[in-house]
Amino acid sequence: MSQHSTVPDETAPAARGEADTAPAPRTRAGALPAARSGRKARREPAGTPPEGGKPALRARFRRDRVLVLMTLPALLLVLVFHYVPVLGNVVAFQDYNPYLSENGFAAMLESPWIGFDQFERIFADSAFWRAVENTLVLFFLQLVLFFPVPIVLALLINSIIRPRVRAVAQAIMYLPHFFSWVLVVTVFQQIFGGAGIIAQTLRQHGIEGFDLMTDPGIFKFLVTSEGIWKDAGWGVIVFLAALSSVSQDLYEAAAMDGAGRWRRMWHVTLPALRPVIALLLVLRVGDALTVGFEQLLLQRDAVGPDAAEVLDTYVWWTGLRNQDFSYAAAAGLIKGIVGLGLVLTANKVAHLMGEQGVYKK
Hints:
By secondary structure, this protein is mainly α. It has helices spanning about 10-20, 35, 55-65, 65-85, 105-110, 115-125, 125-145, 150-160, 165-175, 180-190, 195-205, 220-245, 250-255, 260-285, 295-305, 305-310, 310-320, 325-350. The longest helix has 28 residues, at about 325-350. It is globular, with a radius of gyration of 33 Å.
């Protein structure tokens, strides 16, 4: 007889009975498993809010009240200085006379309606089309010559290894942004003007000097150069912020694959900057009809309106200075509508290129 007798397992049937009669485990919200309920199981991602949708508005406000309070001043400024003045565009369809009442809003209500007469005057004015031409020429020059400069500077600064040298280079490039346009024009006048340093040096050596500040032929290139010197360094900040988010592992992996510095820049750095470049390009296109009011107004008399007149200065001289407010409002409304169309078009192009742009699809 074997030493190990086979004793029937009396606990097995009981265990099996308990297993058969035990309630089935329940999933979230008390639902039966898919195998027992006959329904297909559905896996939900972690962090999915419970059934009932998003948290209540009051709970979300309580959670984010600090952020909401921080954005209220900015929202108030945008509302007061950007959205409320839009209501004043109604004077573009009136023969607005601010002297009909001491209250500007009451004068707006009492001014007679003239329909689209102001727009007909604008489209028939040759000075308006000359201003449009100068504006577009300046925009394309700034887009081709100005827009790539911050990108190149950001790449150069990012390649500097020593932090102290990088900080000094950034400070030198940022500094002109804090200068007023009066100071910027004065600096260029002292360098490239008829009595500037270069002209005086040439005359001392028997060479006839020049005055670039009063030459209408190169005025647009001069204005673009002033903009580059003043604001290119400030634009570097955005691209350096985008470069700081690039993982160093990507550069190390590319270097291990045999990629040199230029190939790493082409395949790692520039793709990281692509979303930011697309966003800023869309915003720049939308701001195409605004090419620098104060800068051009300061130099308008030196080169004449044929070379320096843009839409902003045209509105100022023909509308506000002559107190033809309805005419100025009509010109500004045309500029705003065209700018909105350019933003929507550029954003659509960004979507077609696979970028987010200003807003998602």
